[in-house]
Amino acid sequence: MKETKFQADLVAKLKAGGAYTFNVHGHAMQASGWPDLQVYSPVWTGHLELKVGRNKAAPLQNARIRELRRRGVFAFVLWETGVLQDHEGKGHGVLDLEQTGFEILQQLKRLS
Predict the structure, then answer these.
(1) CA torsion 105→10→92→69, rounded to 10°?
(2) 3-class DSSP state of 76
(3) Is the pLDDT of residue 103 over 80?
(4) Could you give phi then psi for residue 20, rounded to 5 degrees?
(5) CA dist 88 to 39, 46, 82, Å?
């Protein structure tokens, strides 16, 4: 699966689950390393760097996630397999991405 399809599928589910999402990728004023997706909902709000296959978060992406987390903001790397990791690669659990968007948001809340 390509990252664009993974992101499109996830965004569609999250929006159907009541979340507002913002994709920061490709913005002319985007700061390097910023996570791919910002998610805002009453259930869970945070940042997700999406990865597929053998891709890994770049050092700058991990640094950005670390800085967000240090400030009390939920920020993770989310793999297409559902694995949720922090900037150090420490696992925080596995999301069932086959669930509805609302259920995914509930899972994120529980694992954050």
Answers:
(1) -80
(2) strand
(3) yes
(4) -100, 135
(5) 21, 17, 17
CB 47 within 8 A of CB 75: yes
Of 92, 94, 90, 81, nearest in space to 53 by CA = 81
Q: From CA 65, how far away is CA 60, in angstroms rounded?
A: 9
Q: What is the maximum alpha-carbon separation in the chain?
A: 34
Rounded CA-CA distance 13/34 in Å is: 22
Q: Who contacts 72 (Cβ-Cβ below 8 Å, separation ≥6)?
A: none
For residue 25, pLDDT over 90 is answered with: no
Contacts of 104 (CB under 8 A, 6+ apart): 10, 13, 14, 17, 95, 96, 97
Per the DSSP assignment, residues forming a β-bridge with 77 are 49, 85
| 83, amino acid identity | V
pTM of the model: 0.92
Rounded to an integer, what distance in angstroms lies between the CA atom of residue 33 and that of residue 64?
A: 6
